[in-house]
Amino acid sequence: MGLLDFLRRKPPIRDAAAVGAFVDENAAFLMQKGLYEYSRARAGHYSKVLFREPSFQAAIEVSRWRAYPLGLAIVAEAVAGALHERLGGERGAVVQALSDQVLAVFDRYPPPAALGSDEWRSLRAELSRRLQLIGLHPPKRVIDIPEQWVQTYFDLMPIHEQLRGRDFPTTRNYLRVQLCNIHDEFMERLDAEAVAETLMVRTA
Q1: Fewest Cβ atoms closer than 10 Å to its Cβ: which of 43, 70, 82, 201?
Q2: Can you say whether the dihedral through the CA atoms of 50, 53, 58, 61 is positive or negative?
């Protein structure tokens, strides 16, 4: 590894706030990257024209904000599994502490103009429900976590459904591969002992 690679390394995750920031950043990345790359792929040579269209810009703005809480739930489940593996303890307590942190992250964002307050509240309620579901079943393999949410995410693509073709498997594979990469990064950066002292105190 060269000096520049070392300097570019991301810092360790050592507290609850860093865990929340990791989920936040990667949820946004996971959802937005898929939306934009899929739209470019379907538009082909006309992608630059499409992305300049005000109607498309408005549509993808709605899609990315609707997808964001879905991304939080997906990444949170992968992180919950990693935390339980490293921290041990009662899994329900780990999930609850992480859920509280993720909802706190969500609450830092004001309602997006593209959605409005009522829809933003509904998305928060659905996120809370999804986070609670994590603790109601045995831990999943990371590659299997996106399965239940693939259709929901695919339906958010800002491309007319008649133009989507047979792209559902591609979207599934995208979420699987990216989530595995996110999980591996979290495990590499996690300082489990330090995180335990700040994350688990929330359940006390």
Answers
A1: 201
A2: positive
In this predicted structure, the answer to whether residue 192 has a pLDDT above a threshold of 80 is yes
Residue type, 138: P
H helices, E strands: number in the chain: 9, 0
pTM of the model: 0.88
- Cα 198 to Cα 11, 81, 121: the distances in Å are 17, 18, 28
For residue 56, give the amino acid letter: F
Q: Which residues are CB-contacts of 31 (< 8 A; sequence separation ≥ 6)?
A: 64, 67, 68, 70, 71, 153
Nearest to 174, CA basis, from 2, 14, 33, 27: 33
Largest CA distance in the chain: 56
**Distance (Å, rounded) from C-alpha 68 to C-alpha 24?**
9
CA–CA gap between residue 46 and residue 51 (Å, rounded): 9
Q: Does the CA dihedral 34-38-39-40 come out positive or negative?
A: positive
Query: For residue 27, which of 158, 130, 136 has the smallest C-alpha distance?
Result: 130
Q: Which amino acid is at 10?
A: K
Q: Which residues contact 6 (CB under 8 A, 6 or more apart)?
A: none
Top pLDDT among 4 and 37 is at 37
DSSP 175: H
